[in-house]
Amino acid sequence: MNSPRVGILMGSESDLPAMRLCGEVLDEYGIGWEIAVMSAHRAPEVVRSYASQAEARGLRVLVAGAGAAAHLPGVLASLTPLPVIGVPLAGTPLSGIDSLLSIVQMPPGVPVATVAVGEMGARNAGHLAARILALSDPAVAAALKARRQEMSGRVRLPEGFDVSGGGSVPA
Ligand code: RP5
């Protein structure tokens, strides 16, 4: 059984179309995940309970998406020692700038690793979680390496261009 190592949380069902993409990325690495909706302002007791049990339940990274005032990632980070990745989501008249600033501007001591707004950020949260897990999981590290090689294989250079003439693609 691939037990969940990443918890994907979001403040509302309306965040699901973006946040499910994080799960799709984790699937590519063979990383187990779970997903839940819990709002920091509508259900703070649930958030406290989930965060305080997360590490003991085997989770290693939390990914939290939220829009508007977007408290969820910061509140989770205050309640667990696990790394928290925050995904700012658009949906208000401020188009995600509100949630981006809210999530990224955590004061020192309680960090939230903040990714791009919306679907792009939700995907990158999955890739970042994989990089964190790869530090202690050789299978994820191998999947990550294969993916990086596949990405560098997509480069298209002009005919006759010698890439060894300056710089190289990191191993
Ligand atoms: C935030 O408010 C949620 O993360 C969501 O992005 C936004 C709007 O929530 P709903 O009104 O769609 O439930 O808490």
What attributes does this structure have?
single chain, 171 residues, alpha/beta, Rossmann fold, five-stranded parallel beta sheet, 42% helix, binds 5-O-phosphono-beta-D-ribofuranose
Largest sheet: 5 strands, parallel
Bound molecules: 5-O-phosphono-beta-D-ribofuranose
- Percent helix range: 40-55%
Anisotropy-based shape: globular
Radius of gyration: 18 Å
Total individual domains:
1
The helix count comes to 6
pLDDT < 50 stretches: none
| Count of strand segments | 5
Order of helices and strands: EHEHEHEHEHH
CATH architecture descriptor name: 3-Layer(aba) Sandwich
Q: What name is given to the CATH topology?
A: Rossmann fold
Average of the residue pLDDT scores: 95
Largest sheet: spatial strand order: 2-1-3-4-5
Instruction: Determine the strand fraction and express it as a percent band.
Output: 5-15%
Give the terminus-to-terminus CA distance: 32 Å
Structural class: alpha/beta
CATH first level: Alpha Beta
Polypeptide structure, described:
The protein is an alpha/beta fold and 171 residues long. The protein has one domain (6-143): Rossmann fold (3-Layer(aba) Sandwich), CATH 3.40.50. Helix content is 42%, strand content 15%. It has six helices and five strands, in the order E-H-E-H-E-H-E-H-E-H-H. The chain has helices at residues 16-28, 44-54, 72-79, 97-104, 119-134, 138-152; strands spanning 6-10, 33-37, 61-67, 84-89, 113-114. The protein has a five-stranded parallel sheet, with helices on both faces. It is globular and about 60 Å long. The model has no long low-confidence stretch (mean pLDDT 95). The chain binds 5-O-phosphono-beta-D-ribofuranose. The site of 5-O-phosphono-beta-D-ribofuranose has 11 residues, from strand 3.
